[in-house]
Prior knowledge:
Layout: E1 3-9, H1 16-28, E2 35-42, E3 45-52, H2 55-64, E4 72-78, E5 93-94, E6 100-108, H3 111-120, H4 130-145, H5 148-155, E7 161-169, E8 176-181, E9 186-189, E10 193-197, E11 209-212, E12 217-222, E13 225-230, E14 235-236, E15 239-242, H6 258-264, H7 266-274, H8 293-297, E16 301-306, H9 309-325, E17 329-333, H10 334-337, E18 348-354, H11 360-371, E19 375-380, H12 386-390, E20 393-396, H13 409-429, H14 434-445, H15 447-455, H16 458-467, E21 473-478, H17 482-497, E22 500-505, E23 522-526, H18 533-547, E24 552-558, E25 570-574, H19 584-601
Parallel strand pairs: 16-17, 16-18, 18-19, 19-20, 21-22, 21-23, 23-24, 24-25
Antiparallel strand pairs: 1-4, 1-10, 2-3, 2-4, 5-6, 6-7, 7-8, 8-12, 9-10, 9-11, 11-15, 12-13, 13-14
Amino acid sequence: MCGIVGYVGGDSPSEKPLEVVYEGLERLEYRGYDSAGIAVVGADGIEYRKKSGRVEQLKQELKDRPVSLTTTAIGHTRWATHGQPSDQNSHPHLSRDGKVAVVHNGIVENFQELREQLASRGSVFISDTDTEVAAHVLGEEYARAGSLREAMLNAVQSFEGSFALVAIADGEPGTIVAARRNSPLVVGMGDGEYYLGSDVAAFVGYTKRAMAIAQDQIVVLNKDGVEVLNFDGTPAEGEEYDVDWSIEAAVTDGYESFMDKEIHEQPKAVADTLLGRRNKDGYLKLDEMRLNESELRAIDKIIVVACGSAAYAGHVAKYAVEHWCRIPVEVELAHEFRYRDPVVNSKTLVVAISQSGETMDTLMAVRHASEQGACVLAIVNVFGSTIAREADAVLYTHAGPEVAVASTKAFSAQITASYLLGLYLAQLRGNKYPDEVATYLDELAKMPERIEQVLEQEDTIRALARDMKDISSVLFLGRHVGFPIALEGALKLKELAYIHAEGFAAGELKHGPIALVEEGLPIFFVVPTPRRPLLHSKVISNLAEVKSRGARVIVVAEEGDDAVDGLADTIIRVPVSTPTLMMPLVTVVPLQIFACELAKQKGYDVDKPRNLAKSVTVE
């Protein structure tokens, strides 16, 4: 987690470095909001200000106690891993002599051992963080080497774990040095000025030119350019690319929250993920598919690895891919995958799903799968992210930046990309004729309009949430592709409204969960289409079972499905004739809106739920 931003440039001190860093912190606050801080190289050395709480509290601190004009500044917004949120534990942290300032994303796993060694040499620590330990190590190396570049090269040899370390030193006022292992870091390229960020949102308002920093690399920035080195000191080259979204994508644009905005951006996210996927002959093509076609034809098992909402997108993918391709699909929580000795080989395709492409649990699963000889394909939203670079192939979702912590448009785009993968494999392996694939693609092309139809019922859904603002427990039930949507609906309520919510396969009701049903308990049902009569009739029976026991029944059902009329207290309609396998793209939307509004009614910040951060970059 955590957000890092840095700036260096200009021939003389100015206000711009502070402006860039502060604006970057505001845009990166979704990565962590326990505390924030800024450090600059001033006329008299390192100056810093830091404050627990939101970035706006740091702004007041800077107003009360301004720092010097500068050419070089770094900043940090924190999601706590070591030490509780406090002023003392906030970043930046200084070296023992105060000559080096460091901000950090990740975990230095051997920090306790290093802390003891430093203490034996006279270091005194004022925080509980691993970052202060890293700052003291870097300070010692800087005192020996007299060069921040050489100090970083030496210091990283001592660190174990994951880190993006960014440092400035009082003796080098026009230089920033950063190091990356397992934590995201990207450079922004300007004209005589350069930027650093945990992601491009930190600087996209100033430049669209970016450079990805690879695993185990160090980058040195000054106004004259960028130097990239491997940890062993050998020269390296960063991968340059253009950022394809504007600063407007990182603001709420008139919506009450980023989550509101991103819920409404789902039609575009789905449409953009589908864009340009057919060649001139009408065949599905995936430009980022770097895997050999003969390898893909030989695949006899697919394993999806993901966490949170991405894992539920993977569960939806399982239904579609198995149906279209007749290949068995397993869905694994990425943080369990490599610890259970999974059975994978060269005929296994591991599909890693991650919005950021930096999810540490998923990245570790990718590396384990590669070590076992599996083919790895990534479904990610961020160009140049670690998972995208380390996978054998990548399928980008083109959802644009998702700022709210709780996923909405990225989830829909992940499902869409999974459908594309399934249809591509079915086409390649001959499971579906070209005209069948074309029909499915035509249906997918209609989904943005169908999502818009659901969004038109927003007022009704929000009124329902306002009426239910005092509830303390909710159940979600679904069958077939409705089951992972029930899981996602429950997760959204837990994330945003902090109440008990559980998702179940509806068939499990009589195997235990029905004991929870009591008078007035709200239960959401994701009802299958009547065009699948066996599935539909089973869910109608479940509706009757809970209704007879006094539950408050809310259903998400297809237009024209009158079987639910006498059993439901509230009915939310989704467009008729949506193919069964594509129903999740419309049925999830009411559950997102409901959770968003319920959290607002309880007075919570829907963009920044407590204890959570957007990108989980630690295991």
